[in-house]
Specification:
By secondary structure, this protein is of the alpha+beta class. Helices cover about 60% and strands about 15% of the residues. It has 8 helices and 4 strands; from the N terminus they run H-H-H-H-H-H-E-H-E-E-E-H. A hairpin with a 2-residue loop joins strand 3 and strand 4.
């Protein structure tokens, strides 16, 4: 949803700038991940829609749900979100923060969809070759997708490399219809 991402962007950028100044981007990333999980919970979501809920109790409720507690600066961040009625943006803020962190560290997320499980050596070789191709470190995750029939489909950001049998069949069908 474009509107949510637009509204969440300044909060994500502010959190990222603060985390960089503190030298704690990893901690903030984990914290925002926890906050996003809390905000996405159906019971919490239903509470967020209650106009009678005060900012202070809402902040304390969320802080109590965070494993290990909520540092003061993060508590103020959540309070600012609550003051502006933006707590429901936490999943989008966490996502954008993750993207900003990856960009700053020269990293990218890599999703490999494979028809069959990949052994460690094959996966390492594939990731190494993709890191050379894209000139950045990749955070790989593998999903088994039997509907691909064979091969792999690789997604890095908004780029998709489809080397699956299903993808090739779709290309052939398109070529035959043209």
């Amino acid at each position: 949803m474009a509107e949510l991402s637009t509204v969440a962007r300044p909060y994500a950028e502010a959190a990222f700038k603060l985390a960089q100044e503190e030298g704690s981007t990893a901690q903030w990333s984990d914290l925002l991940g926890n906050l996003a999980t809390i905000a996405a919970d159906p019971q919490v979501k239903s509470m967020l829609g209650d106009p009678a809920l005060q900012v202070g109790p809402l902040t304390e409720f969320i802080a109590a749900l965070v494993p290990g507690g909520l540092p003061d600066v993060a508590r103020r961040f959540v309070t600012a979100l609550a003051d502006n009625g933006r707590v429901e943006l936490l999943p989008e803020i966490a996502s954008q923060f993750h993207t900003l962190r990856n960009s700053a560290e020269g990293r990218a997320d890599l999703m490999i969809e494979s028809a069959f499980p990949l052994d460690g050596a094959s996966l390492a070789e594939l990731v190494t070759s993709l890191e050379k191709k894209f000139a950045r470190k990749l955070n790989a995750s593998v999903v088994i997708a039997p509907d691909l029939i064979g091969g792999v489909r690789i997604t890095i950001g908004d780029e998709v490399l489809d080397a699956s049998v299903r993808g090739r069949l779709a290309q052939m069908a398109t070529a035959l219809q043209s």
